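RESIDUES AND SHAPES:
===
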Amino acid sequence: MTTVDDAPGFLSKERIVAPEGFNRWLVPPAALAIHLCIGMAYGFSVFWLPLSKALGIKEAIKCGPEIGFFQELFITTCDWKVSTLGWMYTLFFVLLGSSAALWGGWLERVGPRRAGVVSALCWCGGMLISAVGVYYHQFWMMLLGSGFIGGIGLGLGYISPVSTLIKWFPDRRGMATGMAIMGFGGGAMIGSPLAAELMKVFASDSQVGVYQTFVCMALVYFVFMMSGALGYRIPATGWKPAGWTPPVNQQANAMITQGHVHVSKVWGIPQFWMVWVVLCMNVSAGIGVIGMASPMLQEVFGGSLMGVDAKFVDLDKAQLTTIAGIAAGFTALLSLFNIGGRFVWASLSDKLGRKLTYIIFFVLGGALYASVPASAMAGNKLLFVAAFCIILSMYGGGFATVPAYLADLFGTQMVGAIHGRLLTAWATAGILGPVVVNYMRDYQLGLGIPREQVYNQTMFILVGMLVVGLIANLMIRPVDAKHFMTAEELAHEKKLAHEKASASEVGSASANASVSNPLWVALAWTAVGIPLTWGIYRTLLSVGKFFN
């Protein structure tokens, strides 16, 4: 019998074993609560322009040519350059991948609640440190706060629900991870307009309102993230959905293993590196497009975006401002497809299989990239926009489908940790994609090629990336049985992971039983649905400018 003195700590994994009858639909909104907050990493660029004139307020106080990057870390007499501020964005995703890889195994053993709490402390605490950095005009504090500490919070928060959701939804692995990772794509859709509104409230003749916005958002995010972390529950060992039987020896499910691979062994398994290449190529191509979507639309179609027969270089300042607003609507439209694709494609992968889903990504994506130069030359905006919308849906779908792909290949016992290591592919793609696209654009301009044609060569390079990804995906086969843990090794790992047969083993069943009430499910989904709906509404307003 468990006594109070023997009871595990509040954040321990034993505390969150769900009781019999627990409603598994309470877990996805807990994951969404965290992902919608950390997803603001995508939207941090909303702070760059205000921060670039944090001292000058109306106009930036420019640093002299003798002031280099390292001087900008500490200088208090001139404003930061936008290019300098962009290093925070780079750090976000480098730290996301590296922290997920480093601490993925720890997460599997301590459980999603503790990892979620640490993520909340790092992400929100990092924003508070950044607020102090803005107040004292110390850029090194912003890099330390949001970049380094916040990046660690990103990594832990991103992978915290993966293993849990896959275990709760063995019958719908793709859909489950798609719901959560959809939130990461939607975080900026909520956070960017929220930040813009808050900065308007706090801006004055002596302040641009950024540090106050950081404080407010950190506090709001902390409430949501802690609610999500404390809402996590894990199924008891051996739990499965009512009426569901695991598929056995079916040809259609040949890629779905019944064994489990230890995270320490994945570096030496060919299938891991094939999936690594698959994710890296898919993300490299997609992230390159995201970065150039707005300028590409403006430079390719120029004045025709507003019914004027003029090239981009012939437009005046007012006209450039007008088409920039139209392009912002195009970017907002792409964000909707990015988010929707995460749920739709991941859910479809439950029916199609992960391997076939990625074949579609690469074959269809390659055809769409290759079609862009032709539609641009023909001036067909409809085909041009449609191609990029589908491309971005598959970019998001690639992120959401890959955790289920890993679970199929390597088992569910340590899939969160393995997913963490795979995210090094994202960190690599975050450098590779933009570098290829930006350098190719500058190179083409340097050759004197007209702006409306500088992207043609780039599209075919991206097609080449997708071909590499397709080949890697076609090479993936079921994992050899020699890589799986033995029954003794699996039992040892479950012991280290503090797995329990039921919640009653730690005396927590009575404390958890009430949350299985359908009313709690409705309230949980409402709590994440309201901000998500508001974000979609604000995004649709921007999309409206594009179609008008």
